Amino acid sequence: MSQDITVTDMFCGAGGSTTGAKLAGADVRLAINHWRRAIETHNTNYPETLHALTDLHMANPRRFPSTTILVASPECTAHTLAKGQKRVDQQQLGLWEPEEPDPKAEAEERSRCTMWTPLDWAEYHGYQAIILENVVDVHLWRPFQSWLQAWKSLDYDVEMIYLNSMFTHPTPQSRDRMYFVAWKRKNRRPHLAITPRAHCPSCGRDIDAVQVWKRPNRRYGKYRQQYVYRCPLCARDVTPYYYAAANAIDWSLPTPRIGDRKKPLREKTVQRIADGLQKFTHTSRLSGAVSPFLVNLNHPSVRPIVLTEQPCATQTGYDATGLVSPPFLLDHLGEYRPRSIDGPCSTICASGNHHSLVVPPERSHWLMTYYRHGQLAPIEGAVPTVTTLARHALVTYEEHKKAIAVEDCGFRMLTPKEIQAAMAFPEEYVITGTRREQVKQLGNAVTPPVMKVLMERVIASLA
């Protein structure tokens, strides 16, 4: 049946949704985006797909072929609160006010209005199912309930799934997103409960963990903040298995000594590295490592210091994460909090590379994320969320009996290839453009394993 399933990828970007859909067995017939560089990347990897470079605000759905399923990733930057700024709305002008409308507010409203575009296309094409991805904060969009009702008026049933990418393997990144699934009322309801495998210490066995909301009347939000996973047998809180940030790092690349840099690091960055040294030295569970961590130097909402047993923080579009040695990741976006490389990366965003790797002497490593309230993360954890800016650096250091000085640590930003690995794109996948453009494409992308899981569930319901 999956061979007969055709897909339109709207706001296709670099092709994360397309990659996941094809892994699920679907045929992606049409990919649409407004950015020439993203279309170039998508066409390089999927030349058999029909590509359209167009402004979807202006595109007429009647000009494009119909498919079975629509997948879409409307613009998220005007919805997210992660940038540390309040949402800007247009205010009505008084009758005698000479001021012109706020151009920033107008731009943000146009961005948020991209949420209506998939609905316009569904009205004309009558897709059998729709999968839409956006940030969790889209729930706070004032017309959100009206938007949901509009889908129901088109004879669709709907369900929202709130999921962190680190629990769809092999994604070594903590990336909370909302996934909206709609299907024609005449079709079977897809099974959309995601139950990641976890070990329950009380039961002494691996189980399929169930999502439990801390406030049952508020069923939206992020992992750990608004929901947890529990054992279905004994109701104990459990942590599902995940890939650590260390899996995304190319350890063959050198991490230059901080004291040898021609351009000194900013004072805040140096302080965050010192915080990471204090937290992660002699705490790593990796053999021969003294707790590497990630440092995010830009993102205000990223958690401060996370061990390397965790994923990367969310990747944005900014180049803001550094790798510090004894390795940890430094997130340059939020409060410069270090993250151990044993855990997942923080979220990778479209605004740049915010993760750096800090490597103190004798091969201890961690990641650091750049910008504003950055964070440090150990490499055993997931990579902090990837954004559209380069913001992750690697910090390292050599083992010494005496106290470790910051200038003796190694430090470098994560490369686009490492960010690509944190987003769980295939190693052979080609991202075109400059370093800045590559990071932006990756930070805007959907992690392919999540789309694969959801697409498989939807295809099964159409069989």
From TrEMBL:
Location of the active site: C76
Top-level taxonomic group: Bacteria
Coiled coil regions in record: none
Broad class of enzyme this protein falls into: transferase
Assigned keywords, A-Z: Methyltransferase, Restriction system, S-adenosyl-L-methionine, Transferase
Enzyme Commission designation: 2.1.1.37
Gene3D superfamilies, per the entry: DNA Methylase, subunit A, domain 2, Vaccinia Virus protein VP39
Protein name according to UniProt: DNA (cytosine-5-)-methyltransferase
Organism phylogeny: Bacteria, Bacillati, Chloroflexota, Ktedonobacteria, Ktedonobacterales
Gene that encodes it: dcm
